[in-house]
Design goal:
Number of strands: 23
Helix content: 40-55%
Number of domains: 5
CATH topology of the largest domain: inorganic pyrophosphatase (n-terminal core)
CATH architecture of the largest domain: Alpha-Beta Complex
Structural class: alpha/beta
């Protein structure tokens, strides 16, 4: 039985329209018969003739029409294929594995491959990897890449083949077929990206420049030459930034406002802000070199936001010790300089102001919590003891938040608690602190300025009044909303700062002998027996503590080491290797010692005694982490080295902790960091 090909849809209606009109004429003819029979007969003849001619033409033209439609469809498919091949938009069809199935001429011109290229798309566009192609959950994907100095945006769409296979007479699939193709389009965005970069390069960057030691530098030169010194410094600043198409204007005697384009900022980064070192060459007989700090804000949504970024940056630069540049953007913070040791301030005005502010804050609260960093050392505990004595003198309940103390700190804790009243409970752990805290509690944080490094980070959420006393350089992570922040990188230790505060907080403060021992011991530890970072104020603080009853003999006995600790330290020193002729690197196996982290730090200090060593790094595996202790005397800023590894600290004392890495990998990361920073001139 033959199956005739029939049309349907609108075309079928169009072809049957003549017959429908004939039926309409027949209905009209019936109506005419009711009016006039003769007219109805005449019209009936016309209707019969019309229907016969319509049927003849319909049957005759059907085959012709079908042939024309088939011919048009064939030509239309060829035209469509030509259009796709000649489409100016580079296009390609990929299979499930990213293999090229079909390309048009524009795509072939981009990748310089002939027709029929059927290799993996990654061979010509490495940026289009399997993980960046569309998935079942996300049918569209975009990838930006560069090819032959041109920039493209690749847009891909996933085309499922389940419906095609289901309706196919050739393929058969058990269940639903999950295969797919990927259509790829390439959009040339070179001109757009050039315009965007040019617009970005012209964007405004705001900066603040402070002279760190304005008063001290002037005092080191003759009075008649002071105006000349300042004039020379200002001339150097103006000339330097004028070369970078920038504008610098004086706000105060030692503060300047800076405006420059982002393109100029990039050039300054490439030169690593050589102005920091250049300004130190200004010398007209002054004993002290002038140093500056620069804070820059960039990429903000508004000019006002850039200015806020600049203010944050300059505060961070000063908090890290000055003599450096800090650039803040929405993506993060970057540092330049900071190689020199900050000069000790001769004036104690700041210490007196901070002491009075601390006294006022404590006086308005009922309870005082003092907290240091995890794995507390003698400096942290000694500073906490000093704050405890201030709080008790002001008649407030004071508590020291301390976790499990190591063997180095435990003798000091025992000596301190042994002199307390029997009913006095001062040392508490984190759980007790969280239970006791209320709205009338002030939290004093000592020897640390990073919230994640504190003994109990959760305690920060429950205290409205927070005071920070620290001598480490500030990093990107800071304690926010602190009521009082006293961070002085020039200080040798937190205990030195607390000793100065004790002298200004009030005449009624009476420091006991054992408390003076704890504070004195913190200074001894962080200055390595007064040979590292010991300034005039350090010795004045030590003299004050001696007058309060600190006993040097008792302190020395407290620092005597365990025999196993000494062996582990000596073993680390003996196995040290010299890297790049300047850096001593060693591994300390101190897991079974009383205080592994302390032994590691002591080994790093010992390595500085080797001739030619500018910095020492000792690694140790402890509590499933790799601890790195970094030490230097004055030639290398180990803080910026440790910051590259996620740590921080001070110019001569720093550290870092690496998680989920082996000892070999940690050593490789350290060596690579040192090599890269030395080649870049950062250290």
């Amino acid at each position: 039985m033959k199956h005739k090909l029939k049309v349907k849809g609108k075309l079928q209606l169009y072809m049957q329209l003549t017959l429908l009109l004939g039926l309409l004429f027949a209905a009209v003819d019936v109506w005419i018969y009711t009016i006039d029979v003769k007219a109805g007969v005449v019209l009936s003849g016309f209707v019969i003739f019309y229907l016969i001619m319509a049927l003849i033409l319909l049957n005759f033209n059907r085959s012709i029409l079908m042939n024309e439609l088939i011919s048009f469809a064939t030509q239309y498919g060829q035209i469509q294929s030509c259009l796709l091949r000649d489409l100016e938009l580079p296009s390609a069809l990929l299979d499930e594995n990213g293999k090229v199935i079909w390309t048009n001429r524009a795509f072939e011109q981009v990748i310089h491959k002939p027709k029929g290229f059927n290799k993996d798309i990654r061979t010509v566009i490495p940026a289009i990897t399997r993980d960046k192609m569309p998935t079942l959950e996300q049918e569209f994907a975009e990838v930006a890449f560069s090819l032959e100095e041109r920039e493209y945006q690749a847009k891909m769409r996933r085309i499922p083949l389940a419906e095609m296979v289901q309706n196919s007479d050739i393929f058969e699939s058990e269940g639903r077929y999950e295969g797919f193709l990927t259509i790829l389009y390439l959009f040339d965005e070179t001109a757009l990206q050039i315009a965007l970069r040019e617009n970005d390069n012209q964007s405004l960057c705001v900066g603040l420049l402070y002279i760190d030691n304005y008063e001290e530098a002037l005092e080191s030169v003759e009075e008649v030459r002071r105006s000349l010194l300042i004039a020379l410094v200002e001339r150097k600043l103006n000339k330097y930034f004028a070369a970078y198409d920038g504008i610098i204007k004086k706000l105060e005697k030692d503060k300047f406002f800076l405006i420059l384009r982002k393109q100029s900022l990039k050039r300054l980064k490439e030169n690593r802000f050589d102005l920091l070192e250049d300004v130190k060459t200004v010398n007209i007989g002054n004993d002290m070199s002038v140093t500056i700090s620069i804070g820059i804000g960039s990429d903000g949504m508004t000019y006002a936001q850039n200015y806020e970024f600049a203010r944050t940056s300059i505060d961070l630069a000063l908090g890290r010790g000055g003599d450096q540049t800090v650039i803040k953007t929405p993506e993060g913070v970057s540092y330049f300089g900071g190689k020199s040791q900050q000069m000790e301030k001769n004036t104690r005005v700041k210490a007196r102001v901070k002491a009075l502010a601390l006294k006022e804050i404590i006086s308005t609260k009922d309870k005082v919590f003092v907290m240091g960093h995890t794995n507390a050392d003698v400096d942290s505990f000694g500073a906490a003891v000093g704050i405890y004595r201030i709080a008790k003198t002001l008649g407030r309940n004071a508590y020291i938040v301390l976790g499990s103390s190591n063997n180095v700190v435990r003798p000091w804790v025992d000596a301190f608690t042994g002199r307390l009243d029997n009913d006095e409970h001062v040392i508490i752990d984190s759980e007790e602190a969280l239970e006791m805290v209320d709205n009338n509690t002030v939290l004093v944080i000592v020897d640390v300025n990073r919230p994640s490094y504190t003994e109990c980070p959760e305690l920060l959420k429950y205290c409205r009044s927070i005071v920070v006393l620290d001598h480490h350089r500030a990093g990107e992570e800071v304690i926010e909303n602190a009521t009082l922040s006293y961070v002085e990188p020039y200080a040798s230790s937190s205990c030195e700062m607390v000793a100065e505060i004790l002298q200004y907080v009030g005449e009624g403060v009476k420091v006991r002998g054992v408390e003076a021992d704890c504070i004195y011991g913190g200074i001894v530890v962080d200055t390595s027996n007064f040979v590292s970072k010991a300034g005039v104020r350090t010795f004045e603080a030590a003299a004050f503590l001696r007058r309060c009853g600190a006993d040097v003999t008792r302190v020395r006995k407290m620092f005597r080491e365990d025999a196993n600790d000494y062996r582990a330290k000596a073993d680390a020193v003996s196995q040290a290797s010299i890297y790049l002729d300047e850096y001593a690197i060693s591994v300390c196996f101190a897991e079974h010692t009383t205080s592994p982290t302390v032994v590691c730090a002591q080994a790093a200090n010992e390595l500085l005694n080797i001739n030619g060593v500018k910095a020492s790094f000792v690694l140790m595996q402890y509590n499933q982490r790799i601890y790195i202790s970094a030490r230097s005397i004055d030639e290398v800023n180990v803080q910026i080295v440790m910051e590259k590894l996620g740590g921080g600290g001070h110019l001569g004392i720093a550290g870092a902790q690496l998680v989920d890495v082996s000892m070999e990998e940690a050593q490789r990361q350290l060596r690579d960091t040192l090599k890269q920073m030395k080649e870049a001139g950062e250290i």
